[in-house]
Amino acid sequence: MLEVSQLTRCYGSFKAVDNVSFTIGKGEIVGLLGHNGAGKTTIMKMLSGYLEPNQGTIKIDGVDLQLDPKRVQQSLGYLPENLPVYPEMSVADYLDYAAEIKGLTNNHKIAEIKRAIQATDIGAKLLEPIANLSRGYKQRVGVAQAILGQPKLLILDEPTNGLDPTQTDHMRQLIREIAKNATVILSTHIMQEVNAICDRALIIRHGQLAVDAKLETLRFSHFLRLVTSMNSKQVKTLLETLPGLESVEALEQEPSKAVKTPVIHYRLKLAEGHSPLEVSAVIAQQVVAAKAQLYAITAEHRDLETLFREVNESSVTVQSQEVKNAA
Ligand SMILES: Nc1ncnc2c1ncn2[C@@H]1O[C@H](COP(=O)(O)OP(=O)(O)OP(=O)(O)O)[C@@H](O)[C@H]1O
């Protein structure tokens, strides 16, 4: 659906976006994350055709944005960070104007405006001047103009910026609804946002793509929890030979001999490049084959805030295997 290849953009001698490549499939909701100044808005502006890259290409459904900007722009919707809304215009007039710019005409235009009003629930505000709207309603008007014409790709720059918790909730529901028929890329520096609505995260650090992975992959840490009746000596012997494991740590005291079937918790560190599911399956087989009790084996979950901090403070880079394979 969206193919971005080696995208680079400089402001004077400063490289704001540096050789960024990724692809996004149909129906995905992808979060573009990064600290203030990381380069998110610059990427969004290039994806929307508002800003030209110095290098690289952007293709939507195989069509190059630079070679055929009009055609590509008709299939995308863009909510910019700062809405270019005209304060003196009423909501209805503004949507009519936005629909004309998108090339919509006659009955199709009217039907599309109605659909966008309904989807964003702004029917009660149609005759209000935009200047009188709350921040949340302005944002909804911005989304309404972005979804006119049923774009295949929706680019949302900080869609919940400045919204209160209720408005944020509404906006997230709306994005999920829109994603049923479109691919969505949204920028944010709020990790809960990504947790709440995205399938995948791209983390930008100093203009470069540091992480491109599905959320389910990012949430896995490199640790497994094993609960078994085996004592630590048995566990170490059994698991020593497993290539997928780096270390084993017993988390609880060995029980006294008086207890018939001990229950011992272990934390196992996965070796680099090994999938938690794969290694868990092998461990489960080994424990059962040794005729010991297997009470539980689970992957520890990592919180995304920690990952985000690590990525920004160090040189952590993550490219998940699924994403690489899909590319
Ligand atoms: N028009 C411009 N001229 C010069 N420098 C710019 C311009 N626009 C952005 N920059 C710089 O490029 C870098 C990336 O900016 P960008 O707005 O893309 O970051 P961002 O990740 O969207 O940040 P934020 O989260 O604060 O919105 C920043 O260092 C910024 O100061």
TrEMBL record:
Q: Which GO MF term does the entry hold, naming one?
A: ATP binding
Domain ABC transporter, residue spans: 2-231
Member of which family? Belongs to the ABC transporter superfamily.
What is the name attached to this protein's record?
A: ABC transporter ATP-binding protein
Q: Which Gene3D superfamilies match?
A: P-loop containing nucleotide triphosphate hydrolases
State whether keyword Nucleotide-binding applies. yes
- Keywords assigned: ATP-binding, Nucleotide-binding, Transport
Tell me what organism the protein belongs to: Spartinivicinus marinus
Please give the SMART domains that the UniProt record associates with this protein: AAA
